[in-house]
Design brief:
With 481 residues, the protein is α+β, with helices and mostly antiparallel strands. The chain has a single domain, classed as Outer membrane efflux proteins (OEP) (Up-down Bundle). 65% of the residues lie in helices and 7% in strands. It is built from 13 helices and 6 strands. The strands form 2 sheets. It has a 4-stranded antiparallel β-sheet. A hairpin with an 8-residue loop joins β1 and β2. It is elongated and about 135 Å long.
Amino acid sequence: MSRISVGFLQVVLFLWCGLASVSASEKAELVNEIEKRTNVSISLSYGRTSPALPDSLRNLFADDLTLEEALQIAFANSPRFFASMEELGIAKADVLEATLLKNPKFSGFARSPNHDGQTNLEFEISIDAMNWLLMPLKRRVSKSGLEKTRFRIMDAAVELRSEVKKAYYEVQATEQMFATQSDILQAAQAAAELAARQFKAGNIKEMDLAQEKAAALQAENDYDIVQSVALSARELLSRLLGFSGEDAKLWKVKVQLAEPPSSILLIKGLEELAVSSRYDLLALKMQAEENHRRLTAERFGFLKDTQVGLNTERETDGSRLTGPMWETQVPILDWNQASINRAKSAERLTRYEVQDFELKIRSDVRLTYNRLQMAAFRADRYKKQILPLRARIVELMQLYYNYMLKGVYQLLEVRKQEIEATHDYIRALQDYWTAYAELERAVGGKLPEISTRTMPISNSPLKEIETEKRTKPAQNHGGHT
């Protein structure tokens, strides 16, 4: 073989094998799409080869970890994200496999005659004809599978972003509640110690002492519960960030949860946006298209293993016979009915799954939007009405205590109620931001810049529905009364 032929063969093999690998430009294109949808800056050099935490990530721990920094760390350090990116290489290998022709079959035998004459030789080389004919269809199926994998990777990135945000908000809320829970514990312990001294002096009864002791023990249990919840939330966020061991102890978040904005997002257009942009729905639609093409391929299944080629034979007298050969199944009993019916059902199945998933997406958007709305109402009510009233009650009770009109136990009780109201306010803030993250997930990424309106606290989704029913004009049904 000449040097030119050898070089040409090497180039062809190199380009052919390159189809199975993911190029840097393909990675960059995929990461760029993820960045647009998640609003998170992602480094192309993802993945760590050593357990040591890179200095670029360790430097983020110098101050309190912001939500934006937590998201950046998750996409730069989480093995979960790295694993999803590797699925692209598997899909590329499937594309290469679909574009490769099956190797030709070669067979032959030699037979010695029982009389004078030459050895009978017969050789045959053949290829799978249907593999050639269905090659374009198989290539389209594999490419749709590659696109489906891209959608799934991008959906996994959106899901990771949502989970990191919810875990971050949970850490903020639980650590904030843990800080205030210590105030409740200190107040309960102070009341129990005071009750013990007063009982010893004969100023209160044993029943009153037992009640204060029980309240102090209950406060200790509540303190332990809140601490356990805070540690669990921190562990979840550490796992999502890809931290373990000592690295998980290095970071801390900004404890204060942000207040909801004064305006409420309008739901108009969010359902249509979700249906058109959800990557998991797009992946399911690609699966439906793939199943349709598989059905087309199965219709020719009765011709599978159809071989065409060349046969040559040397007779014992030295003469040679050469000519084409073919081999195929005779579709008398099996016309590939089972595979065709299976493919038809699979096509209908995915078509119905697409319709059902669209309904679920629309429902999730409405459900999450309503939760977001109600959490905003609750947080606003606590901030503007309940917490100021609780603070005023504590202030008045302090005055009564100073004038010896109320006892210390009443003062401690209203202080405890004020802290419990603060806990409820923190939970309302957490519910709001959690619902916000889930609404972003339901839509398929960051929420768009859309019109907002200020909504009074007295309104609610159910009241709005009733208002629409009352204000909606009656429809004329033509002849019906």
